[in-house]
Design brief:
The chain is an alpha+beta fold and about 240 residues long. It contains 5 helices and 15 strands. Strands 7, 8, 9, 10, 11 and 12 form a 6-stranded antiparallel beta sheet that branches. Strands 1-5-6-2 form a 4-stranded mixed beta sheet, with no helix packed on it. Helix 4 (about 210-225) runs antiparallel to helix 5. The two termini are about 35 Å apart.
Length: about 240
């Protein structure tokens, strides 16, 4: 799934691009890559070039880089203020405020839309983003109108993680161990009851029964990220933190 180390400005050779099982699936370019018509793809970040043949996707993994809003990314946003038609939300301290339409929620109308105060948290998906316009996010699926797990995040705590850890946490549960090298959440789930939401912008929201349990889950993920723990080290860390609750 991972490949070569790349530097900004490099041209990606066609033989590195993923080969989809279904030719009709379009190539998806993730963070760190730019398409120049007709067929030139260049890097905009330094990092590890990652390829997912199943999703026909390619991107640059940069653990220490700044998050760049990309369409379809799931993000955890903080409401900064509200205007006539939008909530203006912070994705990171250094990116422009994202616009969240008041009606971009499941079954929302002018009378039933959520009333979000400043500093409220929402789990949303990036709808559009470019260097010339502020990002736009939504808390519902554009095709179905359903929330699909998105919306206001009530209670809990938010923890910062690296962009690489966020991507690994967003892998399907069946692939987190093999492709992401993660068992920390699975191990915690055997001992504690909690909810999590992962933002591609390097934010992890955790809500458990108590503050101590919430802190334990967040700390376990942050320690795994910071210290690059392997599978057995993650299991040992979880056992240690659970005993301290």
């Amino acid at each position: 799934m991972t490949g070569h180390v790349v530097l900004p400005g490099q041209t990606i050779s066609s033989d590195i691009l993923p080969i989809p099982s279904n030719p009709s699936v379009p190539l998806k370019l993730g963070p760190g890559l730019r398409h120049t018509p007709p067929s030139t793809i260049t890097t905009t970040l330094a990092g590890l070039l990652c390829v997912d043949h199943k999703k026909n996707a390619i991107w640059v993994e940069n653990h220490n880089g700044r998050y760049i809003p990309t369409p379809h990314d799931l993000v955890i946003a903080t409401v900064h203020h509200s205007s006539t038609d939008y909530y203006h939300c912070s994705l990171t301290p250094y990116t422009p405020l994202a616009q969240l339409p008041h009606l971009a929620f499941e079954n929302a109308t002018k009378k039933t839309r959520p009333q979000l105060a400043a500093c409220s948290l929402v789990y949303a998906k990036v709808v559009s983003a470019s260097r010339h316009l502020d990002p736009e996010i939504a808390c519902c699926n554009a095709s179905t109108g359903k929330a699909d797990g998105m919306g206001e995040l009530k209670g809990g705590m938010v923890f910062d993680v690296s962009l690489g850890m966020a991507r690994r946490l967003l892998l399907p549960p069946g692939r987190q161990k093999d492709d992401g090298g993660l068992v920390v959440l699975d191990e915690l789930a055997e001992k504690l009851a909690f909810e999590v939401a992962v933002g591609r912008n390097g934010r992890l929201w955790v809500k458990a029964s108590t503050v101590q349990e919430t802190m334990a889950v967040g700390k376990a993920v942050q320690e795994t990220d910071k210290r690059a723990l392997d599978l057995e080290e993650q299991r040992k860390l979880v056992r240690k933190l659970v005993l301290q609750i």
